[in-house]
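Q: Fold this one first, please.
A: Sequence and structure below.
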Amino acid sequence: MLQIPCLSHDDASRAVDVILHALKATNRSAVVAVADQQGELIVLSRLDGAPYASIQIAANKAWTASRERCPSLAIGQASRSGEAGFDMVSYGDIRYTGFGGGLPVIVGDAVIGAVAVSGLSTQEDIALAQDGVAAILKGFESKNTPA
């Protein structure tokens, strides 16, 4: 039987809490999305002042990273490649995006979800999403470590 770990609401909330804490500590605002292994939202949080467009963009970044099992930026870079580039519409779903800031959560060989941030620079979105992924993975390690 195939058994794949999955993200719980508590896992997703842990990632969001870490990211929101970092944003508030630096007086910044953004949208944070955490999706399950199919890219469907578990948690979405928008801080006051975050751009409205970032709501859908964060959700799409998480969806893309989860579905494609790679960072959303990698999809964007591949689509813009001079020789191997492709039209994003070819994927068949309008939720695909190539903006950076969506990262898959990988446990073993399985992608169990994704964390995404939108509303800041690409580098800031990615760094905060990395913090969220790390918070989830730390929680998985502590659950699976023998006492």
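Q: Good. Now the second chain.
A: Here it is, same layout.
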Amino acid sequence: MHTDPTCIFCKIAQQEIPSYRVYEDEAVVAFLDLSQVTKGHTLVIPKHHAKNVYELPEEVAADVFKRVPTIAKAIQRETGAIGMNVLSNAEEVAGQTVYHFHIHLIPRFGHEDGFGAKWITQNDAFTSEELTTLASNIHSQV
């Protein structure tokens, strides 16, 4: 397992820094985000250090994502959340501030609960031909 001795999340995973853990096993740690965007806001991290989704090995991703539903359901049961945002930021432009892959589980309690994920759709910005070409080009990179 790869770790980075300068990474705050690696230090949390190794219990060098205290956290409010909600789950831990051999591969993953989940703990309450100190910012608590909404009650129960939890971060799920692999113990293996990877900067973000671009550097995340497939087997580590499988470890993390296999556990997300169990943790999310526990948060929902405890908080009474009626929804959940599941997100990860990659790179500064996307809002990443800690460069260790992590998933935010943000319980939702209504439209006025303090969190809003909003984007502006561009339905008319791309023609069917442009979307077909884009899909084909992405497919060829997989």
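Q: Anything worth noting on the second one?
A: The chain has a mean pLDDT of 94.
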